[in-house]
Amino acid sequence: MAYHEPVLASESVEALAIRPGGTYVDATFGGGGHSRLILEKLGEEGRLLGFDQDEDALANVPEDERFTFVHHNFRFLKRFLRLHRIREVDGILADLGVSSHQLDVAERGFSYRFDAALDMRMNQQQEKTAATVVNTYEPAALQEVFSRYGEVRNARTLAQRLLQEREHRPIETIGAFLAAVEPVIRGHRARYLSQAFQALRIEVNDEMGALQEFLEQSLELLRPQGRLVVITYHSVEDRMVKNYLKAGNFEGRQEKDFYGNILRPFRLITRKAVVPSEEEVKRNPRARSAKLRVGEKAEAGQ
């Protein structure tokens, strides 16, 4: 099954600076593309754990004694590493993009290209769907979702339009959502819909909450000089990753010790984000907005 071509594959795996006998985490296993490249660099004593909450990812698990699959969201990183008696790791990789497989399977409801249930759940066991958000959120909360997570310029107008429509009938399918929002679309239609769908997906899956918990746990679990490698796809999550790597908090606030020295939890391996080559974008258009950032956990006392 053609599941997903990993974005910035060689760049991200190289950034892990893999030691053959080390322990690593692929926090967003998906189609297993990054994991396969990591396993190629690991020796017999090496170990890799792959996290993914999506049931469809189970079909891609490799038969390799060095690999352990954890069928859970990466926000539970610490809990499951402890369960497997792992106290620290040498590197953690996370590719925050929605997989091509999820976008291309109509019934998952991630793409406006198909008419299906307004779903968008990464974890198909959870109750909240995109339809839940659209049909039950108060106007102010809907506006906040579209504004913060999709950067939709007329978020208030969009929220009011959905409220008007759902008073007549529930908005339960992608087709019904498109019909409702068509009159208020501003600018390039595809871009507008992409932003609106992105916002709903982030809200449904609490992606920002999960990312915050993941980043905090990563710093705790990495050994000194261990690498954190993250690929982001939109400004909201990229800002969060950038600030955390730079300052150890999500506001980018520089904190100092008693003597006035700036506390730096990571040494930045990438001063600027690494972006895909023109060739990769041509081959895989979904890589277009990807940004790769890498931090190395500072030694104690630095």
Mean of residue pLDDT values: 91
The CATH architecture term of the largest domain is 3-Layer(aba) Sandwich
CATH fold node name of the largest domain? Rossmann fold
Helical segment tally?
12
Return the CATH class of the largest domain.
Alpha Beta
- Estimate the strand proportion: 5-15%
Strand/helix succession: HEHEEHEHHHHHHHEHEHE
Give the spatial strand order of the biggest sheet: 3-2-1-4-5-7-6
Low-confidence stretches: 100-104
**Helical fraction:** 25-40%
Radius of gyration, in angstroms, nearest whole number? 20 Å
* Count of the separate structural domains: 2
Describe the protein in words.
By secondary structure, this protein is an alpha/beta fold. It has 2 domains: 9-100 and 212-297, Vaccinia Virus protein VP39 (Rossmann fold, 3-Layer(aba) Sandwich); 124-204, Putative methyltransferase TM0872, insert domain (DNA polymerase, domain 1, Orthogonal Bundle). The chain is built from 12 helices and 7 strands. The chain has a 7-stranded mixed sheet, with helices on both faces. It is globular and about 60 Å long. The protein starts with 8 loop residues before the first helix and ends in a 5-residue tail after the last strand.
What does the secondary structure layout of this molecule look like, with pairings?
Elements (H helix, E strand, L loop, with lengths): L8 H7 L7 E4 L6 H9 L5 E5 L15 E4 L6 H7 L5 E7 L4 H5 L25 H7 L2 H12 L4 H12 L7 H8 L7 H16 L2 H15 E11 L2 H13 L18 E3 L9 H6 L7 E7 L5
Parallel strand pairs: 1-2, 1-4, 2-3, 4-5
Antiparallel strand pairs: 5-7, 6-7
Helix pairs in contact: 1-2, 5-9, 6-7, 6-9, 10-11
